[in-house]
């Protein structure tokens, strides 16, 4: 099984687990139309092209690195990477809404 098929399968399993949790604990009806619409509106494409995004970050790291974070201890490099990734996602998500 290739990486994209694996990530898609994991994502689909997580969505189904969330639906079962909604059904079991909140006693809510499962909004099938909304779920299908959300999956078709870009989430699948987002997961398929995640590899392209990671490759782009790899190229930036290789050719446009200013080596500012390289001097930090490894723990703080991970903290910086997490915050930078989350900020980038927030900015992209906000741009989609404006």
Mean pLDDT level: 81
The number of helical runs is: 4
- Percent of residues in β-strands: under 5%
User: Helix/strand-derived class?
Assistant: mainly alpha
Order of SSEs, N→C? Answer: HHHH
Spans of at least 5 consecutive residues with low confidence: none
Count of beta strands: 0
> Whole-number radius of gyration?
18 Å
User: In which range does the helix fraction lie?
Assistant: over 70%
From the N-terminal CA to the C-terminal CA, the straight-line distance is: 38 Å
The dominant shape is elongated
* Largest sheet geometry: none
Key phrases:
98 residues, mainly alpha, 4 helices, 0% strand
What does this 3D model show about the protein?
With 98 residues, the protein is mainly alpha-helical. It is built from 4 helices and no strands. The longest helix has 24 residues.
């Amino acid at each position: 099984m290739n990486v994209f098929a694996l990530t898609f399968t994991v994502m689909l399993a997580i969505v189904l687990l969330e639906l079962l949790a909604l059904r079991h604990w909140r006693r809510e009806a499962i909004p099938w139309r909304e779920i299908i619409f959300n999956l078709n509106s870009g989430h699948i494409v987002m997961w398929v092209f995640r590899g392209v995004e990671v490759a782009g970050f790899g190229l930036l790291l290789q050719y446009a690195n200013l080596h500012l974070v390289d001097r930090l201890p490894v723990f703080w490099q991970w903290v910086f990477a997490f915050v930078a990734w989350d900020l980038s996602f927030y900015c992209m998500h906000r741009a989609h809404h404006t």
